[in-house]
Amino acid sequence: GGFMHIxxxxxxxxxxxxxxxLVTKQAPFALSLALNKSIKSSRDIDLRMEYGKFFEVRNKxxxxxxxxxxxxxxxxxxxxxxxxASIQRSDLPSPPGARPETRGRKAQTRFMEKxxxxxxxxxxxxxxxxxPIEANVSRKRSGARAGAVNKSFEPRNxxxxxxxxxxxxxxxxxxxxxxxxxxxxxLHSLAKSATIQGGYNPERAVKRGMNKYFKIMYKQAxxxxxxxxxxx
Length: 232
Description:
This protein is an alpha+beta fold and 232 residues long. It has 6 helices and 8 strands.
């Protein structure tokens, strides 16, 4: 009888080359996705917990304005080899390479720096700081200005109402308002300055969060990157 000859040509080297190219191509996407997801979790969980130790969270929108996320981009990683994202105040520009923020309302939040370093808060134009007496003023419960003192309780509007006046008591000054013939309500205390103790540490909270989330987020990002990629 005769013999059958079978010739098998392997393309393993070609497959290996394509796999290497695929990993190289998808690596920036996976890294950017993992960084952006882990930094968001760090802000929304760990940083929010740290924030709640120092401040009463009256306005969720303000929390995000003070700690706004500027995401990394795969394009910047491909160009420079570096992944860059930030958590920052909304009134600051994005660092080079991070995605610019175009949505949402910006707010002047530089005063928050003193809550990190400590310092003396002084009025901008007026001679005294008006510090609300929380039990006697009301604040907005919703909307973009949630947590802010209602307009009728703002010092200027109190004094312009015809019922407001400066009350001197115990060597201190207050803004008060007549609420009846013989009734008054003290709404603000007045001071030349206020001492802010500081100690708020957002950097520590974010580092703690990144240490917890990045590894798992990176694994998940690679799964997503490879699922959506095409082997060519």
